[in-house]
Amino acid sequence: MSKIWFVTGSSRGLGRSFVEAALSRGDKVAATARNAASLDGLVAAHGDAVLPLELDVTDKAAVFESVKRAKEHFGRLDVIVNNAGHGLFGAVEELTEQLLRDQLETNLFGPLWVVQAALPHLREQGAGHIIQISSVGGLTSMPLGGGYHASKWALEGLSESLAQEVVGFGIKVTIIEPGGYATGATAGAVRAEADPRYDGLRENFLAFAGTLDVGDPAAAGRALLTIADTDNPPLRAFFGTQGNQMVQQVYADRLKTWADWQDLAVEAHGRTSATPAA
């Protein structure tokens, strides 16, 4: 049976690849973008299989209306993909309140509104799959990405709780953590006003970014179909090779640090031994 998708951020990048992958096999998609004209090519190629919706995910009322329209148009919703988002580059000291609020409005509150709008429909169906597009940066962090990491780490926590809350309704949740992809997303990221004291870090970051092996967005689209078709999908999945490489070292370092400071943890609890009381 073909699936009905609701995908945010469908105009370009990974979102576009997800939509094209679903349509290419005969699924139907409610595709959203801030500029509906950017979806004209999808409609021309796939006709009535696409419902183009103009949507800024930071507009809560518009999100609820778009989800409602999609459900009424197609009759059901099977896969919800929260993909809309943007990057933010800048040292923590460089971030303005507005920059950080804007980042959270899009990367955290946007998915929240979509989930809250979709859940009544999915509950009524007794089935559905919510796919949250996070990032390797939702598990690790790098200099100059504090605002972005804050949004993605928050999305990870929100989504993990969500998964536990809705499993009893037959609803699945998967968090996708992509590495770098050739989507041009970096060029479209917001940048804080640069403080020259962080110029060295910026140069180092650019040099590091230039060494990354970026992935093929079309391959990510095909991989998402596999996730959507799996009866028992994972809570988390990396897309690309970078995530597993980075997280192995990060988690090893965290575990070692916690072990090294376990005596202090016990002391802070008020016990003299790590052995639980009988």
**What is the highest CATH level, the class of the largest domain?**
Alpha Beta
The sequence of SSEs as H and E is EHEHEHEEHEHEEHHEHH
Number of strands: 9
* C-alpha geometry: globular
Q: Tell me the CATH topology of the largest domain.
A: Rossmann fold
* Secondary-structure arrangement, i.e. CATH architecture of the largest domain: 3-Layer(aba) Sandwich
Q: Radius of gyration in whole Å, from Cα?
A: 20 Å
Unreliable stretches covering 5 or more consecutive residues: none
**What is the CATH H-level superfamily of the largest domain?**
NAD(P)-binding Rossmann-like Domain
Which structural category do the helix and sheet elements fall into? alpha/beta
Number of spatially distinct domains: 2
Main β-sheet description: 7 strands, parallel
Q: What is the overall number of helices? A: 9
Give the overall average pLDDT. Answer: 94
Strand fraction band? 5-15%
Distance between the terminal alpha carbons, to the nearest Å?
Answer: 56 Å
- What is the spatial order of strands in the main beta sheet? 3-2-1-4-6-7-9
Q: What percent of the residues sit in helical stretches (DSSP H or I)?
A: 40-55%
Helix and strand topology:
Layout: E1 4-7, H1 13-24, E2 28-33, H2 40-46, E3 50-54, H3 60-74, E4 79-82, E5 88-89, H4 97-125, E6 128-133, H5 146-166, E7 171-178, E8 190-191, H6 199-209, H7 217-229, E9 236-239, H8 242-260, H9 262-269
